[in-house]
């Protein structure tokens, strides 16, 4: 009974601490959205890269985040159910025999979804810090700002810092300063790369043959198209999109290796995992281990009394 009570306390502590981390990150993102003030960057009045017309987004923010969260999580829900019900993984079978399929499924799903959400928060914070610190003007800056050119002296390739936008849409004026890096590019790339890694590691069915890589390629194509649309819609400069792609890929790989352990970790991580296992005892609980089965870092174990 004592070990079971300790196990429940550890689960509650982990869930609460994870929720606090994600909640804190979400609040930081909300603060950027509500109160963030982009760096006031000037411009060269003969800069042709800022003279593009304003266009509506091909991929709206709603579509981006709805699909970017729904598709990966739906894949995780389906694949974890398949793994529990259909695949015969030795360590997972032991856990199922002790705790039942439902508990193991909920545990595995939690350990899949939470790292993905954590990575999304990190990726968004990284992007927003860049946006508000740099304040780069979007390609449609002149179209949105509606400058009064009679008050601006444009001579000899002059750099203009003292200017005022006369647009009635102040939110659009604020958004026009948030070109670098591209949020669409960073999030779509993060979601796509993480999902591709997840499928590569977790979906082990030989009969699928080319189906798995086909799904992975389609996911990457969706992110690729999203990135290209930001350039063709004149929402970002190509370098903004490129930087967003780098952020997305980097965060996806780091989260896959260090947080979810979808990818092999180094010897130091392995030794740390061994230390944690020693500290918690050889157990009646369980922490699922990706390194042993190449899928989970945590192995659920149970103390025998």
Automatic annotation (TrEMBL):
InterPro entries: PAP-like (IPR043216), PAP2/HPO (IPR000326), PAP2/HPO_sf (IPR036938). Residues 113-256 form the Phosphatidic acid phosphatase type 2/haloperoxidase domain. It comes from the Eukaryota. It is found in: Membrane. It is a multi-pass membrane protein. This is Phosphatidic acid phosphatase type 2/haloperoxidase domain-containing protein. GO terms for biological process: phospholipid dephosphorylation; phospholipid metabolic process; signal transduction. The chain crosses the membrane at residues 12-32, 62-82, 210-229, 241-263. Its main location: membrane. Keywords: Membrane, Transmembrane, Transmembrane helix. GO terms for molecular function: phosphatidate phosphatase activity. Gene3D superfamilies: Phosphatidic acid phosphatase type 2/haloperoxidase. Pfam families: PAP2. Belongs to the PA-phosphatase related phosphoesterase family. GO terms for cellular component: plasma membrane. PANTHER family: FI04477P-RELATED, LIPID PHOSPHATE PHOSPHATASE. CDD domains: PAP2_wunen (cd03384).
């Amino acid at each position: 009974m004592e070990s079971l009570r300790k196990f429940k306390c550890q689960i509650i502590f982990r869930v609460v601490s994870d929720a606090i981390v994600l909640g804190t990150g979400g609040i930081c993102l909300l603060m950027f959205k509500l109160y963030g003030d982009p760096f006031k960057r000037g411009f060269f009045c003969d800069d042709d890269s800022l003279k593009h017309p304003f266009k509506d987004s091909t991929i709206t923010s709603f579509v981006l985040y709805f699909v970017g969260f729904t598709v990966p999580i739906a894949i995780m829900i389906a694949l974890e159910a398949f793994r529990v019900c259909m695949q015969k993984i030795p360590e997972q079978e032991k856990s199922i025999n002790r705790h039942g399929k439902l508990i193991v499924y909920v545990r595995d799903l939690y350990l899949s979804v939470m790292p993905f959400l954590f990575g999304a928060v990190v990726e968004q914070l990284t992007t927003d810090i860049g946006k508000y610190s740099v304040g780069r003007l979007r390609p449609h800056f002149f179209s949105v700002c509606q400058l009064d050119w009679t008050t601006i002296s444009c001579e000899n390739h002059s750099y203009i810092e003292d200017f005022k936008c006369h647009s009635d849409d102040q939110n659009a004026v604020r958004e026009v300063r948030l070109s670098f890096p591209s949020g669409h590019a960073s999030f779509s790339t993060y979601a796509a790369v993480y999902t591709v890694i997840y499928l590569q590691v977790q979906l082990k069915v030989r009969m699928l043959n080319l189906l798995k890589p086909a799904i992975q390629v389609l996911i990457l194509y969706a992110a690729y198209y999203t990135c290209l649309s930001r350039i063709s819609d004149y929402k970002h400069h190509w370098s903004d999109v490129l930087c967003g792609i780098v952020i997305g890929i980097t965060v996806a790989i780091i989260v896959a290796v260090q947080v979810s352990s979808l990818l092999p970790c180094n010897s130091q991580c392995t030794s740390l995992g061994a230390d944690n296992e020693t500290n918690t005892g050889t157990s009646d609980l369980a922490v699922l281990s990706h390194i042993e089965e190449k899928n989970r870092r945590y192995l659920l174990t149970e103390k025998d009394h």
